[in-house]
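The step that takes the researchers longest sounds almost clerical: writing a folded protein down as plain text. Below is the pair of lines this work produces for a single protein:

——
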Amino acid sequence: MKFGHIGTENEQTFGHKSTSAIKDIIKDRTLYLFISPFYLTFLVFGLFPIIFSIYLSLHSWDGIGEMTFVGLDNFAYLFEDSVFWGAIGNTFIIWIMSVIPSIVFGLIVANLINSPITKFKDFFKVAYFLPNVTATVAVAIIFSSVFSTNYGVANFFLETIGLDRVPWLTNSLGIKVVIALMVIWASVGYNTILYLAGLQRIPKELYEAAAMDGANSFQVFTKITLPLMRPIILFTVIMSTISGLQVFTEPQVLAEGRPIQGSITIVLYLYEQAFSFNSFGYGAALSWVLFFIILAVSIINWKIFNKKNKGGRI
């Protein structure tokens, strides 16, 4: 009887809270009406595509005819698809080539701007952040001109110093380098602004105390700046992971719609399967594999950055 009584009280409490919540919604219906477009838009263009993609990944569909249920066959085919594994390799190579330099350069530029001797700080903030908001297609067109085999500026300088031309856009390694340079060029400014905000929050007293103890610039940077900047660095690494593993526009534009083997990334391969070959089920399966790859790499990054040794450092 006692447990039954408690259960009844809990049900009554839950019912009372539900009724109270409904009354609050009715009371503030005007406010909820103003924010409803966001939730309606999210349901239609956000939640529904996610749910439908799960359903679609279990079917074979060309976008016009009837769907055929195939279960996990789309995912099983991934293990036999050599192009898919090549796309994974290309994506990770480009990611490694772009993420590490963008983080390092971002830290260096942020420290230079944050230096007391640097003038026109606002100008440099805008100048370094501008590439991040520039249209990727426009940037890709410029880079394709700069690294053109016959008329590119890059090959012109190579020939000037006595080196041979490099087929940047038709070579497997060359196009990876160009794509990585594009990602670096666009992401350094974003990282710089975040790092600059973090640097400005570090108490100056710590640097003054380190100077009084005779610490040099390298010791100050490794013992004070880096440990206190770790949360922001972790954030930029995870964000770079998410964006870096979804590279699409750069290889698609640079290869002029005819990507060579070295430039096919996971998202580009997904796009081709779904919208060029009308294999929407397989494309949906690829998208979910990409999701779990990004999730796994992000978790690994988070674990690495949060792992402390006995001295309390990474």
Remarks:
- DSSP finds 13 helices and two strands in the chain.
- Residues 1-7, 309-314 have pLDDT under 50 and may be disordered.
- The beta strands are 59-60, 68-69.
